Amino acid sequence: MSEKFQKIVNAPHKFAGRVRKNISQLQPEKDSGKVAQAGGIIVSGMVQFLLWLGTRIALDNKLTRAGEEYLAKIKPTENPKHKNVRAVQSTIKKHPNLSAHLAYYALLGTLAFGGNGVYNMKQSDKESGTESIFRKPKSYAEIIKTLKIKPTSTYSEFKEMCKPMTPLLIGFMSCPEGFRPNVYLDGRGKPTIGYGSTMIPNGKTGISVTRKTKSVNREQAYEYARWHIEDYETDLILYCYCVALNKTMTASEYLGLASFLYNGGAKMFEPDDNAKNNRIRNDRWTLMLNQIRDNGDISQQEVLDYFEKYPVVSEGSVMGAWRDGQSLDIVGNNMTNYLKAGNGRNRGLHWRRWIEACILTGRISPLDLINCPVGGIYEFQQYMEKVHGESLIDRDARTVNYDLADDFLEWLQHPQYWDKRHKRLYTPSKNLPTIKSILPDEVAEKLTTKSKATIFAIGDILVNQNIDVPLNYAMNDINNNMGK
Questions:
Q1: Strands, DSSP E only, in 191-345?
Q2: 364 CB burial (10 A radius; 0-12, 13-18, 19+)
Q3: Digit-coded pLDDT (tens) for 438-484
Q4: What is the dihedral of CA 356, 350, 235, 183, to 10 degrees?
Q5: What is the pLDDT of residue 105?
Q6: Which of 127, 274, 470, 475 is most buried when burial is the number of CB atoms within 10 A of its CB?
Q7: Contact status, residue 180 vs residue 197, Cβ threshold 8 Å
């Protein structure tokens, strides 16, 4: 083997090795830079290995060497049939180790062709919308709608499964709730703060918000809402009903029902009836909450035992429709039975129930709301009523006007407000505060960029549910640095 050819063959994989070494010596400060560095090391290492493998095949291929030796030993005659043999022998003599050259360049061509094929496949996937879960999805709303969240053997497992949904849930709830840094009274006259929190963490139990509760910033308000969902009662209530009713939820169902329960607790599924029935419900939930706080967990069987000892005796219309497996449209329609706050109807609950029903049924995704103006659903309600004569909810028929979901998504692109004083439409300033602006910066960034962290976390849910996905990304980091 000529020394010149050996240098030619060894040069590419040595160059790839130097590239990998240079990348490994970089010291990026940001997490994104570290991820890029790791990817660069992996890719350059794989290329180096393939080039090295090609080198070994080209230089040490006994099969091609044996073929060359066999052709060299043939003694061609004047027979015309041996004309090609003489030509091959002449070429081999003129170009030693020709087979090694051909093998090496064929391998380089295969490597280049294969890389181009992978790139073309990826581009084709993008155009056809068939990319896998670990690449950019066709539609976040579609993925959120089709995920399955099942009752696990313990509450702690269920809570971990639902954690990636928390930023989506808080982002969605901040649309009807808004953000209030100071204490205010909600529609029932209860002191409230942040993103609609009436309870705030205090040791293992939590305490009610009072008029003396200190002001909060966005990060503190997010932590209050996260605590209420994950550590106080929202996820626990949903887990217990999933177990007791043997229900499986899509992520859309989870988000819609979780917002509904966040608004009023277990009473939204088991409304106040009479003193006896209320006591049965309250005793059951008090005992289960105490067990969680004392033992840190509760199992499926323990939940079933509590429901057997303290059965549901005052079933709400939402719980009944959901339990019986009726369509999600009907479950959403039944949410319109919960429009009262305090001594009368609360107009704010109209647009809250409407958006909850649209999220529940998958017509709107929480990600659609991130750029919604603060108070935008109310303004959209005014716009539809005053300009088009359409209501979000038919109060007489107790149904949700689902047809307005598409109108709302269009309205978000070019919001128009109704001027009550002059009775006309106007286009508000482009600098309107949006839901993004009232969320903590890190949460808003994750939701607006539709980051990989979000979809990786959703991939974890799929894997946890034994749904076939290509890769199990253990990157449930969506709640990192959120005060946990």
A1: 191-194, 199-200, 207-208, 249-250, 340-341, 344-345
A2: buried
A3: 999 988 887 775 444 444 444 444 444 443 332 222 223 333 333 33
A4: 130
A5: 66
A6: 475
A7: no
| d(C-alpha 484, C-alpha 479), whole Å | 8
* pLDDT tens, residue by residue, 315-330: 999 999 999 999 999 9
The amino acid at residue 169 is L
Quick one: pLDDT at residue 366?
Answer: 86
Cα–Cα distance measured from residue 35 to residue 301, given in angstroms and rounded to the nearest whole number: 43
Structure tokens belonging to residue 439: 């969320």
CB atoms within 10 A of CB 246: 11
Structure tokens at 4: 């010149």
CB 286 within 8 A of CB 262: no
- Burial (CB count within 10 angstroms: exposed 0-12, middle 13-18, buried 19+), residue 254: buried
User: What are the angstrom distances between the C-alpha of 362 and each of 45, 164, 168, 255?
Assistant: 43, 18, 13, 10
Q: Do the beta carbons of residue 117 and residue 344 sit within 8 Å?
A: no
* Mean pLDDT score, 89-116: 62
DSSP state of 324: T
Residue ranges of domains in the chain, CATH in brackets: 3-128 (no CATH), 142-464 (1.10.530.40)
Residue 383, both tokens: 């716009």
How large is the C-alpha radius of gyration of the chain? 32
Q: How far is CA 7 from CA 46, 94, 351, in A?
A: 21, 20, 73
Nearest Cα neighbor of 16 from 58, 49, 39, 60 is 49
> Is 116 within 8 Å of 434 (Cβ atoms)?
no
DSSP letters for 153-172: SBHHHHHHHHGGGHHHHHHH
Q: Give the position of tokens 């030993």.
A: 73
Torsion region of 389: left, alpha or beta (phi above 0 gives left; psi -120 to 50 gives alpha): left
